[in-house]
Structures are given as structure tokens and as C-alpha cells.
Amino acid sequence: MKMAKVNLNIVALAVTLLLLAETWAQNSKKKPSPLKPVKGQCCDEVRSLKVQVANLSSLLEELSHKQETDLKNVVRQIMELNKQNRQQEARVTEAESKYSEINNRVEIMQLQTAQSATQTSSDAIYDCASLYSKSYKISGEYTLPKDEFLGTPKLTVFCDMETNGGGWTVIQRRQIGMTSFNRDWKQYKSGFGSIRGDFWIGNEHIFRLTRQPSTLRIELEDWEGEKRYAEYGLFNVGNERNSYKLFISNYSGNAGDSLRYHNNTNFSTINKDNDKCVDDCASLRKGGYWYNCCTDSNLNGVFYRYGEHLKNADGITWYGWHGSYYSLKKVEMKVRPVGFQS
Length: 342
Ligand SMILES: [Ca+2]
What we know:
Pfam families: Fibrinogen_C (PF00147). By secondary structure, this protein is an alpha+beta fold.
């Protein structure tokens, strides 16, 4: 509205200027042969008109300057409002995530309380399967409480409560590619990475989780978006003194049995060569794994992005599906107790 008013003012001024200019032109035409006194009168008139024109132009300039300033102010106000809006949105998102986190914690604390009241092993929360059986059926991050009875420490886990009946504790994920898996024995022992991103849960935790008869499920995805899986009906690892030795059996799935070659081998890392080879497989394949001599699969290998994914033998490979040189886009390894029922 304000803008339109300013525009009208400018148009009106322009019209006035035009009229003045025309009047002056006509006046000068009407007097073709001016006499001396007339000439003086004419020049006075011209001078006065010139002054008026100058005044009007400066007024015009002032108005257009004012219009520009108004426009700038409006734009600035809009930008400021946008910024406030974004800040508010961010605050809401943050509040929501905090709320769900607190909610999660409260629920786990309630579980802990209920658990300490009964103190029997069948009620203990020591994996995602026990959470599932207590009606926690949403996939996501959970904190397993420390359990004196079982001798298990507090542990943050990611539960897959959907795949094939749920109850899966995820022990490994490759998906983002920012976390290096070329790590030493100690790091593989206790675990590394981020539970919502790429991580290795830790050999000590895998040992503990698989003390009860367990199933291992490996889910793979290639760069074309296809998904395959391999499941081992029985899976466990030895303790640290036995170099977290791998035991698997009862393969099923559609990805091929590319862990069989690694069965009954010890875990190796960059600083601990426990493989069955003169070569140092962990250094060659750049990960920690149950290396034989060296791989049929290398799920803790180097994450290669699309375009680089066909060139290297140290990538995230699964021979039974894409051979020794195809580095996969996504991997998840997860465990749950044998006989789990959803
Ligand atoms: Ca070796």
C-alpha cells in the first residue's frame, strides 16, 4: 500500500514536470522576435522554471530514495522473520528428540526397577530379544542396564525389532563410510563408532551376547539397491584368551555362504596377526576380522563409495554375491537367541 502511494506521487510529479516543460516551450515559441524588455521577462521566467524543475527533480530523487529504503527495510524484516522461524523449528526438533530420549531412559529405568525387584535371570534385560519380549517392539537405540546377576555392564545397543520377527541386537553396521574400521585389537575388543551410524559393538560384547545359543544374520545391500542376506543358525565367538575365535553353522539365505571359509579362525587386527596365512591379512584387507588366508568376505574392510567400489580387494566384500572386488554399499550384522519367538 505504502509503495503504491509513493509510486502515485512520483507519477504525479513527472506529469507536473512534463506540463511545466511544455508551457515553457510554448511560451518561448510565442515570442519569435523578442524585444529587449521582453527578453528580460522571458529569462526571468525561464530561470524560475529552471529552479522549479531543479526543486522537483530533487524531490523526485528523494522520493525514489525513500522508496528504495522502504523496500530494503521490508526485505530485511522478511529475512529476519525467516531466520526466527528457522530457529524456532530447530528448537522444536531439539526438544522433540530430547523428549524421546528422556522417555526412552525413563522406560529403561522402570524396567531396571522391575528387574531388581525380581532378580531372576529369566527377567534380565541383556539383549534386544529380552526387550522385545517385554513389549519393546520399536527399532532404535536402547540402553541395556548393568546386571550384577549376569555380570554384564551397561551397554547402548541398536535393536532391530522388525526384520524377520525382530529381537535382533545389531553388532555391526557399515552405511555412512566416515568411520575407519582399520583399528587395533583393543578397539575391536571394546567396540567403536556410533550406534546410529557405523560401528563395531566390540568382541567382548559379542562374546557375552553369544554365550546363550545364538543366530547370526548378515544383511547386505549393493550399489544397485538390491538386498541379500546370510543367516547362520548357530553363531558364537570364543573369549579373548581364545582370540574371539569364530564358530558358525547352519547357513541359510540368498547371499551365498561366504563366512564358512572363516569358520574356526581367530580374530585378527592390524596389530595382532592371528590368521592362517604367511601374509598379514588384517594389514592387507585393512580391517579386523576372522581372517583365514585371507578372505571370502571382508565385512570390516574399507568403505568405498560408488565409482570406487569395483577397484579394490580390501573393500567390504562378500564373495558369494559380488565376488572379491565389489565393495558393498551397506552391511548389518545382528544376533538373537536361538528359538526366539516374536
Ligand atoms: Ca599371518
